[in-house]
Structure formats: C-alpha cells, structure tokens
Amino acid sequence: MMDKVVTSGEKLNNYLSLSKEEKAFFEECERKGNQSLPLHVPLSWLERIEGEDCPLRKQSVPHINEFTSTGEELLDPIGDRRHSPLKGLIHHYDDRVLVLITDRCAMYCRHCFRRHFTGRGGALKESEIDSILDYLEEHKEVHEVIISGGDALMAPYNRLEYLLNGLNDLKRPLVKRVGTRLPLVYPDIISERILNLLGAQKSLWLVMQINHVKELSPAAIGIIQEIRKRGIPMLNQAVLLKGVNDSVEAQINLSYALIEEGIKPYYLFQGDLAKGTSHFRVPLDRALELYEELGKRVSHLALPRFGLDLPGGGGKVNLEASSMVRKDEEYYYFRNGKGQVGRYPREEE
C-alpha cells in the first residue's frame, strides 16, 4: 500500500501543480535538513483535490507558513508531557485517560497539534501496554479510556487487540473511545478484521475528525455504513480551520451531512496554539460569532459543543458555557473545571 501514498515533495509535484508557497516549504526543509511534520498523503485523497483553495488540499499539502511561529505558540500546546505518568499515557482528567497507542497516521494533517510526537517513533510495545494496564488497575477512578495517537487504527492489529483485551480483563466497566481519521483519509486499508474487532467490544465509541463535507467521499461513506452495521456509535470532533470550514454555511453543511450518516457532531474545537499552525487559526472573536450564528440555524442534534484546550495543559473549557471570566485587549480568560483560570490570545486575521 505504500506505493499509494505520497511522502516527498518531488512525488507530490507529479500529482499537483504546487504553488509558490507550497514549493517554498520543501525548499526550506531542504535548507534546514528537516520537516516539522512528515509528509504522508494517500493518493486517493490527492485525487479528490480541486484547485488551490480546496479544503482537502489545505489540510494535507504543506505550506511555507508552517515555518512561521508566533510568540504564543508551543511545542506541546495542551500540556501532554505535564500529565504523562507513563510512556503513551496521558492522565489529565481524574475520570479518564488517553492512550497514545501509535504515533502513525495515514495522513499527517498540516494543522496537527501533536506534531512534536506524530510520525517519530512507532507503536507501543506489549510491555508498555502492560504498564498502562497496571496503572489503570491501581487507578479505580478512571472510567473512560481514549485510544488515539497518531491514529489508533494505524496501530498494528495485534497491539490494538492486545490493549482492548487487556482493558476488558480489568473486570470493571470502562468506556472506550477510539480516535481515528482512517475512514476519511484512507478507507481502502480498513479491514473487515479491524471492523469486527471494534464491533465485538462493549461500550466502545468511534470518534472521528471530519472537518469538511468534502471529506465524506463515497468510499468513506461506505466504510461508515459498515461501522454502523456493527452497532458502533460514532462521534465527530471537528477543528475550526481558517480557509477550510470557517463559515456558517460550511459548518451547517457538515453538521447535517454527519447526522444523515449516523454521526453525532460532538465537538468543534478552536485551534490549539501549536507551533507552525497560526495560518489555520480563526481569531477567537470571529469564531465565537460564527458559533453563535450556527446555534441559531441548526438543531441541537446537529450542533456540536464549542471547545478550547487552554494552552500549556490548563484543560478543556466549553466556550458556549459560563467558563469565560473576562477579556481584555490581548486575551480571553477562562475558568476550567478545577476552578483555575487560563488565557487564550485575541489574534488578528
């Protein structure tokens, strides 16, 4: 399957006529001897790109702006390292943990907030999974395990099966969330064996990141229908991205397309302050206005919650709730679930 994936600027230029800014990215990589985030795009995704402003292109093709960083941006924008007691385990909230089972994705999205981690190592070993299971055995307060990465479904089958079996063996009710973009970016490599493994689990939810209705290709819809046949509930966590989905109409079209396919719009996230992603972030002033208008025009079934992760590990806040404390000319200030106050910058267009 690797021959159906583009991993170099030279090969990418064979399929797309790269813009000056896109070419400049690869020239800068060559000059510096590295990329901030690897290039990895399935051909099936590239073949659906239409024009320079296509939302598929903006999410997958590197741009020179990835080498631009603002003073507010961080390598670890949501504080994973602060809350990681073991390799591959993030315990940020008392009742749930995040397991980063692999750092691999079928496509490295250019807005990735975990770019300090993504595509740099591999999957957890069974011994490392055992350590995580031991930790969960001791921490009875944990009721939910989020399996992500990278992309959880890009982990070797035997490692994912080993983790799921280990969670089942803990002999207490645990809700499992599996995070993936694979049904959208590379549905061809999702096997029936993977689908059956997920379908055999109790209390398992599949959480996807679908940012634009154009991602719902016929092949993607076909896999989503196979997931539904196995009784697996699905949620969507979209990211608000400048030039991709930052209009009320784009959000309305996405929300109704999702619920028509049996996917609940769960969260819409404001962009994290990850280094090299400022060109994707919608200024929060405008984002709040957009969400307010969206709430007036769609049903509650079609309306996601609007969330933001406070920079540096302050935790998630719901922007439609009473979490805002105040604002000044430079920042918004929000109170998290533990009563702590964090801030998020008021950026300009």
Detail the topology: elements first, then pairings.
Layout: E1 5-6, H1 9-15, H2 20-32, E2 41-42, H3 43-46, H4 55-60, E3 89-93, E4 96-100, H5 126-138, E5 144-148, H6 157-168, E6 175-180, H7 182-185, H8 192-199, E7 204-208, H9 218-229, E8 234-239, H10 248-260, E9 263-269, H11 284-297, E10 305-310, E11 315-318, E12 324-327, E13 331-335, E14 341-345
Parallel strand pairs: 4-5, 5-6, 6-7, 7-8, 8-9, 9-10
Antiparallel strand pairs: 1-2, 3-4, 10-11, 12-13, 13-14
Helix pairs in contact: 5-6, 10-11
Structural class: alpha/beta
What spatial order of strands do you see in the largest sheet? Answer: 3-4-5-6-7-8-9-10-11
How many domains comprise the coordinates?
Answer: 1
- Helix tally equals 11
Distance between the termini: 40 Å
The shape is globular
Residue stretches low in confidence (pLDDT < 50, at least 5 long) are none
CATH class: Alpha Beta
CATH architecture: Alpha-Beta Barrel
Strand content: 15-25%
- Write down how many β-strands occur, each being a DSSP E stretch of 2 or more residues: 14
Overall mean pLDDT stands at 95
Indicate the percent of residues in helices: 25-40%
**SSE sequence, one letter per element:** EHHEHHEEHEHEHHEHEHEHEEEEE
Q: Taking Cα atoms only, what radius of gyration do you get, to the nearest Å?
A: 20 Å
Query: What does the main sheet amount to?
Result: 9 strands, mixed
- CATH superfamily caption: Aldolase class I
